[in-house]
């Protein structure tokens, strides 16, 4: 009986493989560093070994596996399963990931961009359960997004739908990793919050943010801003309010365009909780049209540490 | 054989009813002024008469009609068919349009917001044929939008999806009809273009726009700006470029979020053609991410004068 699935999570720093039963319960897991500098061929051989090891660790044989779900940084083509040079995976240039896995294991593989897979996991197992229109937004190194409509990932014309972090709010604003200026990501991602904090500290030293980063301005991170804000530090609270204003503005636009039942925010929003979520909700209510604003809930994502694993599994159970 | 359908187009100034065969060919049409000040009960009785008259005019009997499609200004609820106080229809407060029509004619009625119905018509009969992800944007009195995914209108949580004209670009910008500031609509709709023209003319009289509006600044419309731009008037060309910049910025955000195969622009964009479309395409290419920008075509909508009729018919054939 093929009642189990394999999940593969391919990140820039780590690879993880899991085996789960068809309810999504994780039975075994193997992790390795990605060694991104060794390229795609090294990684695929490593993944083949890891999958075998994970199946064995679950006391199963390969015959028990019905499908492989893969969550990977994009851009990628979900139909062909080809991965096109993700920024965090040097050397993965038009790499035929789906075909390589299917040839090796003779099991169907589903390849998905990590933000989309995470959105589907939140819909299947987390905060999006029971909602027809779900928007999931990461808020960490970057601001990614995934849209789930009636239980299906919305892919758009060429698997690029949901790049919500690259809506431009300030065309003359800070440079974004994508090469444009003033994207939501360039203002509100973790590194962007840290950059704004550093700029502010250089103008105004009266803040506990620096002490929390052991006195070194170059080590200031968004975590230090959050910690300082929790202690009531005025500059940190101003930075958080600024972040909430731009996040709220961006989400209000998404609420008008997509009319989601729920917007689930990851990582930084989970860590910050209501400190960030309350002013975000206020800005959305100020900026979005009344009818879609009334319909939407803005909540932290629910899957936390298990999101990466469940993102791979959600694709195949 | 029930091979025919009725379409009803409810606007703030005119009502139209059509009968079409099941290929979408219009067989008869009746038009009346809306007399919006007389309210919903007057209008529904008038529509009952108009539908009967249109069926008779097509040499059919009511038994030949399989469905009624209704295109109406929103907000409205497509499931219940209740219309909630559209700005252009005073007195239509929680008006049970679907139930009233179904009770009168004993035929199923489908009620849809006019921008969504237009998007579906472009998908079925116009510029969106053959594309999986279609974004239609009106560009006239307001900037509305409709999203068609795999042949279905995307409604979102409460029929508010596609309010693309109310994405905010300039939070400190001009007041919008929706009560917010700096929406795309408040910058690029027909009245917004006219407002910017009037403001510019007051500062700089060296333009042919004013002469084209018979010398009266209060009668300046977007049409005069377009006509002056075609004659090479510098101020008019600047206003058109400005319009294209903001439209392109807004569309680039939509391209990143929705990854459409095609964006179809109505009314003003059709009238302006490449004068407006070329600089819009340039800005989208500058502002959107490379992969979704490569996938999208930005084109004038195709249905022109017949859009209103076909919008109603597309809902039921």
Protein architecture, described:
Two copies of one chain form a homodimer. Chain A is of the alpha/beta class. Chain A has two domains: 4-113 and 306-314, ATPase, nucleotide binding domain (Nucleotidyltransferase, domain 5), CATH 3.30.420.40; 127-301, 2-Layer Sandwich (Nucleotidyltransferase, domain 5). Helices cover 41% and strands 20% of the residues of chain A. Chain A has twelve helices and 13 strands. In chain A, strands 3-2-1-4-8 form a five-stranded mixed β-sheet, with helices on both faces. In chain A, strands 11-10-9-12-13 form a five-stranded mixed β-sheet, sandwiched between helices. The radius of gyration of chain A is 20 Å and the shape is globular. The mean pLDDT of chain A is 96. The interface between A and B is large, with 42 and 42 residues.
Shape of chain A: globular
Q: Strand order within the widest sheet of chain A?
A: 3-2-1-4-8
Structural class of chain A: alpha/beta
Classified by CATH, the class of the largest domain in chain A is Alpha Beta
CATH architecture of the largest domain in chain A: 2-Layer Sandwich
- Assembly state (oligomeric): homodimer
- Give the helix tally of chain A: 12
Rounded Rg of chain A? 20 Å
Number of domains of chain A: 2
Helix content of chain A: 40-55%
- Estimate the mean pLDDT confidence of chain A: 96
